Amino acid sequence: MEDQLHIVATSRRRITLITAVFAVLLAVCAALFIGGRTDTAVATDAPGLNANQNICKGSITKGEADPDDPTLTTVAYRLACDQPLTGYALFVDGHPVQSLETETFGTDPITDLPVAKNAFSCNGDLPGYGVNCVGTYTGKWVVIKGTFTIEGDICAEPRVDPILTVMNSTYDSKKKVVNEAISGPFDLGRPKKAGCKATKFSGKRKILFEDAATVIQ
């Protein structure tokens, strides 16, 4: 059975968190895409959809132990968006990232087979509170899978609950106009199918939903 991915929308509440995450990711976006990384930009002349209104969904679970350090806990994440990307970042507060998967790839949401032109190179300060990835992504809900590690039990409260922000860099056919778009933050949610027992925090999220349609099959 396919794991559910949470569809996420920002809430008017938790404005402090949203502002902080946006400020951090805006700096990341500037560093990655303006600071010499326009090689990941995608050519486009079509007006298309508003790239600042991308919609993304995702989830996390417990991954396989890292053979290099089995004492660490592996967090496996999945994310998908409806529009193209040239970068994404995960904000992981309260659980410093100890290591991370440096390459992630896109797979078909139905067949789970690799999809061409959907791959990212990831990095970040270690230990640190973020995972930053640049590459290309075609949208249409292709699934990106990746991992990072943290210390401690994935079920320990407060549980890890990554916040996702996505970026898209495009230029016109003459490569004279570069446009930067940023969407989010999106809440990937607490661990699913990780064997965690329910607590008083179960069902709660950093970013609250505006409606009841919280998951997509």
Overview of this structure, please?
Keywords: Membrane, Transmembrane, Transmembrane helix. The chain crosses the membrane at residues 15-34. With 217 residues, this protein is mostly beta strands. The chain has a single domain (5-211), classed as Immunoglobulin-like. The protein is 9% helix and 38% strand. The chain has 1 helix and 13 strands. The chain has one helix at 15-34, and strands at residues 5-7, 42-43, 56-62, 73-81, 85-91, 99-100, 103-107, 114-123, 130-137, 143-150, 163-171, 178-187, 215-216. Strands 1, 2, 3, 4, 5, 6, 7, 8, 9, 10, 11, 12 and 13 form a 13-stranded mixed sheet that branches. A hairpin with a 6-residue loop joins β8 and β9. The longest helix is centred in the N-terminal third of the chain and has 20 residues, at 15-34. The N and C termini lie close together (10 Å). The model is unreliable at 7-24, 30-38 and 210-217 (pLDDT under 50).
